[in-house]
Amino acid sequence: MLQILSKTNLDITLFIGNDESIHKVTGLVLGLHKKGYRCEGSGATVSTFMTGGDGNSIEGLRVRFTKSSDSGYGRFSRSFFKRKITKDGATITLDISRGTKLRHKTSVSVRIVPSSEDKRTLSNIDIISRYSRHIKTSEAIVDIGDIISSADIDNDCFSNKSSEEDNNNSALLLDTVVTRVKDLETNYKYLYPFLCVQNLTKKQSLSAITLAEFNKFAKQTDIIEEVSMPTKCARQKFIELCDIFKSNTVLNKLKANNFEFRKDARNSLSVDLFGFELINEINFKHFKYFDHPGINFCADYLDKSKTFDIIEAKVSKEIITRI
Amino acid sequence: MAENISILIKWSDLFNPESLQHFLLDMRNLDITNSIADNDFKQTSIEGLKSYSRSNLLNEIDLIPNEVVLKQNRAVQFSTSKRIELKLFPKVVEFVKNYCPYIYDFMQDQNIETVEVFIKISANYPNDLDVINIKINDYLNLKDWIQKDSIELTPFILAALIKNFYNQNQEPFGIKTSSALLRIKQYINHVISLFDKNINLLKEYIIDKNNDECLMNHLEFNFLDNMILKTNKFDLYEQNLDMKFLSYINRSNLREKLVNAETNSNIL
C-alpha cells in the first residue's frame, strides 16, 4: 500500500506499507530525488499503521520528503531514507542516502538478514550434500551471515540536463538500479548455497556483492540451481587448473568469467566465484578423492556453464605471456 | 696437548643402560677421527682426540649400520623402519572402507598396499640412568611390535595411511616416544576397540578446535610429531572420522574418557 498523505509546494508526506516491494520503494525514492525532494533521516520517518481498502490494518512507514535544491559550488543537499521490513522471516533494510557516504554520490543499499526458517530448510535438505558426499550440513555451515548489496549513482543523474539524450541516459541509469534491486529481491536466496560453502572456507558475518555483480549472478541462476556433484573428469580438470595457478611464479591474481584466483604469501590459493570465497587451500591433490564442496561447486559450474575452456585458456595465456 | 683415545663398543652394550651412559659420557669430549663398524664381531671401534674445547663431529657416524647412529650433537639415535602390509591389519582396511571412503578410494586408485613406519628414539648426555633405561626399553618394545606386525601397531598403521592420504605421498610415519604414545600403548585395547566395537564414541566425538592437542592454530594437524594435514581452515575436516580418531587417542584426558565410556556402557 502506497498513499500520499499530504502534499504542499515544500513537502510531500507518504505512507509506505510494509507490503510494498523493495524495488518499488527504491524507484519511488529515486524519483522523488529527481524531483528535488529529500528525506531528512529518522526525524522524517515514523513507523505507523494505516487501514487498507479491505479494512485491514497495514503496518508501514510515514515519511516526509522536503523540497531542497543543491546549492552552488558543487554542494549537494543531503538525504537519508531508511526502511526496514520483515518479509518471509527475512529482515530487509533499504538505505538510500545522498551525500552522506560519498559527497557526490547517492548510494542505494539493501541489507538482508536471512530468516531462521530458511536456515532450518538449508539444514533439513542437507544443502552441502549436493556438493560433497563426505561432509554433512552442520549448524555452523547453515549459520549464514547477512547479505549486503549496493550501488552508487552519481548525483548528476538527478539534475535536469540540457539535452534530452542526457536526460534519457540518466533515467535509464536510475531504471537500471531499480531493476537490479528487483533482481536481488527476487533471487537473493540463490546466494544461500554460496554462503554455506563459504562458511567452510571463510566465515563471514556480512557478505557484500554489488548490485551490478548480483545482476551478473542472477543471469546464471538456472545453471547455479543445477550445480551439484561434478563429473570425475571436471573435478580433476579443475584441481589441475588450481595446481597450475598455485605453482606458477609469475602471476598472483587472475580474474576471469566471474572467477578470481589469488595466491598468498603462505603459498595457498583462494578462489572466489561471484566474489564469494569458496576455496582457500594449501594442498589440492587429496581433493581428487575427498569432496571439497567449493572445488566441486566451481568444477561443476564451469562444466555446466561450458566455460572450462575459456578459464583454462585465460590462465594459460596470462601465465605464458608473463614468463 | 690432546690425548689419543681409542674406544671399542660392543653393539650389545649400546642396549645396556649403564654402558650406554658411559659411552655417552666418553663421546662428550672426543674429536672423532675415525670409526669402523665391524659386522663380524658386532662391535664398532672409534678413534679420536680427547679435547676439552667444543668437540667437532662433522658427520654422524654409524655405530650399528642402519640402526644406531651417533649424531652430530653427540646423541645416540636408535632407529628402525619397516614397510608393513595393510592386509595384515584388516581392522584398518575395514575402518577406512566403512567410514573414510575417500581414503579407501585413494588406496584403490593408487594401489596402496603397504605403509612405512619408523621408530626413532634418542639418548643423550646427561640423561640419567632411568631415562636411558626407559628409552632403550621403549625402542626394543616398539622394534618388537614392528618386526612381529603386532596388533598393537593398528592405530599407527591407520595414522600412517591417513598421513599418506592427506599428503598424497608415501612418506614413512614416525613413532617417537612421547606421553601421547605411552598413553596409547597403555590403553591400546580401548584404542583398538574404536575401530569397530566403540565406533560410536568416535561418531559422537567433537573435535574441540580451540583446544585440540593435535591442532596448531587451526592450521596444522599433527600426530606424534607427524604432520598429517596443513590447511587454512580445519572446519572442512572436523567431521572426518580419521581426524576424530587421531584427535581422540592423542588427548591427555584419554584415561578419564575411557573410564566414562566404560561406566556408560556398564549402565546401558
Q: Give the overall pLDDT of chain B as a whole number.
A: 89
- Element order of chain A: H for helix, E for strand: EEHEEEEEEHHEHHEHHHEEEEHH
The best one-word shape of chain B is: elongated
Which two chains share the most extensive interface? Answer: A-B, 24 and 18 residues
Helix content of chain A: 25-40%
Measure the end-to-end span of chain B: 77 Å
The count of strands of chain B amounts to: 11
Radius of gyration of chain A: 23 Å
Annotation, overall tally of beta strands of chain A: 14
Structural class of chain B: alpha+beta
Round the Cα radius of gyration of chain B to an integer and report it.
Answer: 22 Å
Q: What's the N-to-C terminus distance of chain A? A: 62 Å
Helix content of chain B: 40-55%
Features of the shown structure:
heterodimer; A: 323 residues; alpha+beta; 5-stranded antiparallel beta sheet; 5-stranded mixed beta sheet; 14 strands; globular; B: 268 residues; 3-stranded antiparallel beta sheet; 41% helix; 25% strand
Characterise the protein shown here.
The complex is a heterodimer of chains A (323) and B (268). By secondary structure, chain A is α+β, with helices and mostly antiparallel strands. Chain A has 10 helices and 14 strands. Chain A has helices spanning 22-34, 116-124, 139-142, 164-187, 192-201, 211-218, 221-226, 232-247, 293-304, 308-322, and strands at residues 2-7, 11-17, 37-39, 45-51, 57-67, 79-87, 90-98, 105-113, 146-154, 206-210, 253-256, 259-263, 269-273, 276-281. In chain A, the strands form 3 sheets. In chain A, strands 1, 2, 3, 4 and 5 form a 5-stranded antiparallel β-sheet that branches. Chain A has a 5-stranded mixed β-sheet with strand order 6-7-8-9-10. In chain A, helix 1 (22-34) packs antiparallel against helix 4, helix 4 (164-187) packs across helix 6 (211-218) and helix 8 (232-247) crosses helix 9 (293-304). The longest helix of chain A has 24 residues, at 164-187. Chain B has 10 helices and 11 strands. Chain B has helices at residues 17-28, 90-99, 101-110, 129-148, 154-167, 179-186, 188-193, 199-204, 241-250, 254-267; strands spanning 3-10, 30-38, 43-50, 61-64, 68-70, 76-85, 114-123, 173-175, 215-216, 220-223, 226-230. In chain B, a hairpin with a 3-residue loop joins strand 4 (61-64) and strand 5. The model of chain B has no long low-confidence stretch (mean pLDDT 89). Classes of the chains: A alpha+beta (323), B alpha+beta (268).
